[in-house]
Amino acid sequence: MSITPAAPVLNSGDDTSMRLDGEDLYLTQVDFEHRIPLKAIAVAEAGERTFAITLKSRWEDEPAVFRIGDVDTDEAAAFARAVLDALPEPTEGDREVNGVWVVASRDIPAEPPEGLNGFQIGAITVVLLLAGCATYAGIMGGFWPITAVLIVGGITAFVFAAAVIQIPATALAWSLPKRGVKAVAAYSHNGQYKRLHLYTDKRGNTRTFPGLYSSASTWAPKDIEVVYDPEAPGTVLRADEGRWGKVIGLVLLGALSALGLAGTVLLTLGYGL
User: Fold this and answer.
1) CA 20 to 30 Å from 255, out of 137, 154, 159, 216?
2) What is the value of pTM for the model shown?
3) Which domain range does residue 82 map to?
């Protein structure tokens, strides 16, 4: 069937859009994209500043719904007509079809920030410090001092990197439950590697929570309580995220980094005495 939609793209008021492209409908957000074949769609409908598609499902299964909100009502109505006109003719086999089986979902990599970030600056500083210590130890003591400094300093650098990487996740796990909005993310379908759960933010947009369970998992929960940032709904964590565990882990990594740095410096100075 030839597809020539009158309104091929429907943009939400924030970071979400739906787009018709050939025989597929794309739901795109900042960090995630779902490719939904038109053959998987049972219903497309527009409401007051909302648009939603309901996927086909077997009689015993609850159909999956993908929704976006904060859209222009007239544009949503035009887009719904375009999607409905593009849908293939229904068949008897549709009763045995579950639309989520053919939905393809993928992460969208974040664009790297311009310039050096804090982690890169810290890594460069540690490498320069390690190189300076190794050079000094080598000049003062020879091969074995260099080896000792590189081993101790290398382990310290690895632990320090792990601590720096942990800082944003720890800060988010501590702050988001206090300012975030709770929602229930219901299991929808399997992504390439993980089970995907969907939740609806306060603007009416369907959001994706990848979770921690692999696609092959058979014991993962069907529903997960999550908390998301109301200003950036794609930022989401489990509501029961273990923030104290992250804090303790960060403190331990920081303490080990400090001990390792002190040991590297003392070892270097020891060869110069």
Assistant:
1) 137
2) 0.68
3) 9-107
